[in-house]
Amino acid sequence: MKLxxxxxxxxGTYSRRLKGYINEIIEFGAVKVDETLTVVDTFxxxxxxxxxxxxxxxxxxxxxxxxxxxVDGMLFMQAVSRFRKWAGDSLLMTWGTSDLLALIxxxxxxxxxxHIPFLTKYVDLQRYCESRLPGxxxxxxxxxxxxxxxxxxxxxxxxxxxxxxxxxxxxxxxVLYQKDAFESMIQxxxxxxxxxxxxxxxxxxxxxxxxxxxxxxxxxxxxxxxLEAEQLSDWIVRNKSFRADFYCPHCDYRFTGRIQFKxxxxxxxxxxxxxxxxxxSQEETAEGGEDMADLxxxxxDIQEEP
Length: 306
Hints:
Layout: E1 3-15, E2 20-33, E3 39-46, H1 57-63, H2 67-70, H3 76-87, E4 91-94, H4 98-111, E5 121-124, H5 125-132, H6 143-149, H7 162-176, H8 179-183, E6 187-188, H9 194-199, E7 203-205, E8 230-231, E9 236-238, E10 241-248, E11 253-264, E12 267-276, H10 282-287, H11 292-300
């Protein structure tokens, strides 16, 4: 089975039909490899914008693409049709799911169907590489960061162009490839859960009376002895989480309990963390900026399960 790494560039533009913004794809770039990860072919296509007539200044700076580059480009559905014929039944990979979400958005806009016609088997290459580099922590790892960690030289002038980024992704993949680990991450796009899971947006609950929040979820255990602590103050909402002061009579220890409820595709996830007690009142704390503990916890929450 052939493997394809696809990278896309897009331009955020306002759609009158949607009365909102769409990430309109303006460039396809992909590399196809065989079972030995040897390149057998590449694909590149510019896509002529149909919604936004001009590339934004941010995208011009990022990609070095100009409006003139896209004048003779294909229409989006023409590019999809040509890519589908080129890809065949290959397994598709992208660096993160952003490109898939952009494809779904564009397919839905231009042909009324959010299913990607050339997608049958899929691997999130970003997630795979992160699993092979466990020391990086919980934050999402960008392609440039991965290349740097692996000692792969990256030409700045070629970054943020579709074909070049797909080739750079391949270089990272080659270094980290392990057959069994890779095969364990293959997803079936025909699975009924594939698209709902991919497009589900995590919701952070800020109402502790929400029917999915149980009373047992609001208990806090002492970090020192593991026993249930006594709640000293009412719950307040701060930085997308609930806070209250607690006291453990067994340890004579006072601290602040933090609980966050994240509703994901597979259900509710409850995250609890005990923070050092601060002398200021909860009102003052609630009105203050994010402290370093909050920042560290929020950074841990950046990476979402697909």
